[in-house]
Design goal:
alpha+beta, Butyryl-Coa Dehydrogenase, subunit A, domain 1, two-stranded antiparallel ribbon, Butyryl-CoA Dehydrogenase, subunit A, domain 2, 11 strands, homodimer, globular, Butyryl-CoA Dehydrogenase, subunit A, domain 3, 598 residues
């Protein structure tokens, strides 16, 4: 059976030693009182919930899956999921980073990100139930009417009700402009919605009293395409004036998808058969409103893969130390045993360190983004808020695509460490691979993320936002440029930064002449950008480790951090050279081929 | 539901136009009569069997899996598997490349490889039943006593009986020297075997009257480690002097593994409880005897991934032409539709072409290896036989590891083309990914393959065999060096060949000082070698295409072949630069890390 130990030490390292969140929080009136002790106590409690409540249900949830009663349209999640959710609500976890005006605890997003990383390690399928709810909370908090906020937010914050986002239809996922679900205005100001949605995560279950579906649909007079889409709040049970639950609204689960993984999550086909809803935000402005939720969700998906990368690493490491097989190439290591533990083999270490470097780099980036959102929401200086918002917008597609692709690489590498046993379900490793696989797809495929990054976020403003990140790199170079010990970490990042500037300009020119050149280079470009960002954070983490070691700190944690940084720059970072070369391979070799690809 | 169309045209291209097997066969007395017409007729029939009989059982077999009756220890494969196997036997397919002395049809291995590729595309889990049998046939044909050959071979050739290989035990897979199954000699010259095996593919089923298990075990006086292992033939039902089936031998299925994929294959835990067996080959020489089977199996595993790469490509291509979503970046393409088919998007094409280039390159290499084995077995010139044997030994770990890793990349890319639908079982794409995943593990993990290549096959003889492959490259360069049209294909291969020579020498020196340097570089090295070999075959395929086009042939097949070659060299081949760089990153960044990886 797999193990999971909350990586509290490493989270605290990133939070307190790298990002120095304490100093950051002090600048924000809302969070000024949040000190390290508070943060650590919450992480510890969250870690307990993740490892003791959510994690034991991970394999059983995968095996059992969800069950739809076709007569009642009710869905039963796997055994234990409902009870675990009740404990989660009881513990006040849904409220953690929510607005105190609606019962929230108003804690920083950064802290919430740590809790979610641990929940994702423990049980991605289960975590999606509260995860989707939180997204619905954010969309309603930002775009809901006062009446909607009053009706829904306290219940979402307490966790008594959950939420979903209903976007996809069978014929459209990426291209929401094609969607067909209709919303007919009623005399009382509500709307009746009719249509069919698919792939609705946490779409139906018995874990909460009510479910608030946020549904994209078209008004009768809506323009064609993506500018004619509106957003509606459609509850499972209609809510009466006094807040109590009324009649069952005809929005129900017509079927459950049979999926490669995340079996414990009810991925529902949702039928709307004249379901009553209310408009969220402006008519025909549903897509921008939904994007509030989508952006949070995209960061959340990156966090899911971060969680899976960490838990896969922990298990592969434990196995590699325990499993004996063959002797070390450089001579017997475990003389008392008939073979050496497989961690003596260089390629086993390479697989382990790949996962470790991606987990720790991902954690730094993920929490940095959390901090940017905390600044965006609560920093008193408007310029800081604006800059932070821009930077997190730039980094969001990188978090989504780079972390999930890395999760794919890492979970597969960790599964490979187990040899044949990795293919066997009971060990839990192949589930991490299967669960991670959706993260590369949903909330916008990784190709879509790359087009968002290169087309919109970078070339869309002539690289202005990218330059802001470049300034952070330049600042680090300035700080540490003369420090010989930092050269091995700083030089590759500085060099790649320079290359990327040229590379970006080059793609801008090519894309101007032929937009397909952007499409052909985007995926490679995003991965290069991902390494630039990871390289920056690995250099910063090495900086902290070097300083601690220089100051006489003998905690082996810092030596390990340095070694992992060295591994990262020697074995993973060089991918960037290839990526720029294949991107420069251009669009013609793709587009000149006959469409038949005969 | 997925589709599968046997790629007869491309197989015929490789067989007749690239490898010119007709000329090759003429030089071999056994195959002198095998002309193109015969080959094509067999491929067509084999394709029909694969697409019409095996393929329709692929998804249902995955859904249903195998069932063990714990009282009788009998295993029932998924519905239809038994009937399909009966048809396979009736069609004489098991006998195709077997020795006519035992009822075989004596056809070339090359032809058999084509049939297996199609069966693997259609249904890898099903194909493993006859596949393992064929391996048992080969081991007994090479190492069996006359009595064993007489008793088992005709039944394996006809397909009435099937075979397995029983190597792995719970505590040892890679390191077979640790195995514990015991064989006690009996007065009548037989042995009684006791022990527990795991991961036995096609280990128990009701598709054949009898199953011949080839089992590795230890004699009482055997030396420790891998030099104390012997090979035994242990039938499910004891065979009487007249060839009829006698009593049930106590070798039975104690449990079925729950796996990520290949659910239709019975992966059995096999219990030997004093089962009667006979010795195959010499005492304590079981491993070398088993390696006959293992080498064939390794090529077979590469062929499995080739099959999955091809079928995944076909389905992703069909979907990409059919699914409409968004408009082309370079302007509307399908004016009559609300969106363009997704094949207009550059990255979708990149994913498709990746699978296509890996499928077609893999097919060329796979069939070339088949041809080398045909030469090794039947060429009248001893030197040709010896050279061919050496070359196929060199290429075997490349076929196993490179084709299966490419299969991982390709099946995942093709699944990604489907977006969210790729994650849904009914579309079949995620099954290709899951089924392929075992190919990177079994028959020696891909890390083991890389150590076999670099440590044993390359450095073990100071690169002598590698130089033989280098001569083929040099010959092509000589032939086409002045042909301007070939420069784009020849130059990168010639350049990489030069680099590899230096790279190999360098690794030899480093490995001499520290063997872990070999272990650290081996996986990267194998992938570079894989691209050298693929580059060579892509250049040869481009050569044929250019000649046909120059001769006025307007079949679009040749233009597509050229375009795919260009794609391969622009987008996939450049990986080699990164791989040499990461390999040069060395062993220290791996081995200096504390074992705790704290």
């Amino acid at each position: 059976m797999p193990v999971y130990n909350p990586p509290l030490r490493d989270m605290q390292f990133v939070m307190h030693e790298v990002l120095k969140v304490g100093d950051e929080y002090k600048a924000m009136p809302r969070h000024a009182e949040v000190d390290a002790e508070t943060v650590n106590a919450i992480l510890e409690e969250g870690g307990k919930f993740a490892s003791e409540v959510a994690f034991p249900l991970n394999i059983s949830g995968d095996e059992e899956g969800c069950t739809l009663n076709r007569e009642t349209h009710e869905v039963t999640p796997p055994k234990g999921f409902k009870e675990a959710y009740a404990k989660y609500v009881e513990g006040g976890w849904p409220a953690l980073s929510c607005d105190p005006d609606y019962g929230g605890q108003g804690l920083p997003i950064t802290v919430n990100q740590c809790i979610y990383e641990m929940l994702n390690s423990a049980n991605q399928a289960w975590t999606m139930y509260p995860g989707l709810s939180h997204g619905a909370y954010e969309a309603l908090h930002e775009h809901g009417t006062d009446a909607q906020k009053k009706m829904y937010l306290p219940k979402l914050v307490s966790g008594e009700w959950t939420g979903t986002m209903c976007l996809t239809e069978a014929h459209c996922g990426t291209d929401l402009g094609l969607l067909r679900t209709k919303a007919e205005p009623q005399a009382d100001g509500t709307y009746k919605l009719t249509g069919n949605k698919i792939f609705i995560s946490a779409g139906e279950h018995d874990m909460a009293q009510n479910i608030v579906h946020l549904v994209l649909a078209r008004l009768p007079d809506a323009p064609q395409g993506s500018k004619g889409i509106s957003l509606f709040a459609v509850p499972k049970f209609n809510v009466q004036a006094d807040g109590s639950l009324g009649s069952r609204n005809p929005i129900y689960c017509g079927g459950l998808e049979h999926k490669m993984g995340i079996h414990g999550n009810a991925t529902a086909q949702i039928v709307l058969d004249g379901a009553v809803g209310t408009l969220v935000g402006q008519p025909n402005k549903g897509l921008p409103a939904m994007f509030v939720m989508m952006n949070a969700a995209r960061l959340g998906v990156g966090n899911q893969s971060l969680g899976l990368t960490e838990v896969a690493f922990q298990n592969a490491l434990a196995y590699a130390k325990d499993r004996i097989q063959m002797r070390s190439l450089s001579g017997v290591k475990a003389k008392d045993k008939p073979a050496d533990p497989i961690i003596v083999h260089p390629d086993v270490r390479k697989m382990l360190l790949t996962a470790k470097a991606y987990a720790e780099g991902g954690r730094a980036l993920n929490l940095y983004c959390g901090l940017l959102i905390d600044r965006e929401l609560h920093h008193p200086d408007e310029k800081v808020r604006k800059d932070s918002a821009e930077l997190v917008a730039l980094l969001t597609p990188i978090v989504k695509a780079f972390l999930t692709d890395n999760g794919h690489i890492a979970t597969n590498a960790c599964m490979q460490v187990f040899g044949g046993h990795g293919y066997i379900r009971e060990w839990g490793m192949e589930q991490f691979v299967r669960d991670n696989r959706i993260n590369m797809i949903y909330e916008g495929t990784n190709t879509i993320q790359s087009l968002d990054l290169l087309g919109r976020k970078v070339l869309g403003n002539n690289g202005a936002t990218l330059k802001k990140f470049g300034k952070l790199v330049a600042q680090l170079v300035e700080e540490e440029g003369v420090n010989e010990k930092m050269a091995e970490f700083i030089n590759p990042v500085a060099y790649l930064g320079d290359q990327m500037t040229k590379f970006t300009t080059e793609l801008g020119f090519k894309g101007f002449q032929d937009p397909d050149e952007v499409g052909a280079a985007a995926v490679d470009y995003l991965r290069v950008a991902g390494h630039l960002v990871f390289g920056y954070f690995w250099a910063r983490m090495a900086q902290v480790a070097l300083r601690e070691i220089a100051a006489g700190n003998t905690d082996p944690f810092y030596q390990a951090k340095l070694q992992t940084a060295r591994f990262y720059f020697a074995k993973l970072f060089p991918e960037t050279a290839m990526l720029m070369r294949t991107a420069r391979g251009g669009a013609r070799v793709l587009m000149d081929t006959d469409e038949a690809l005969a």
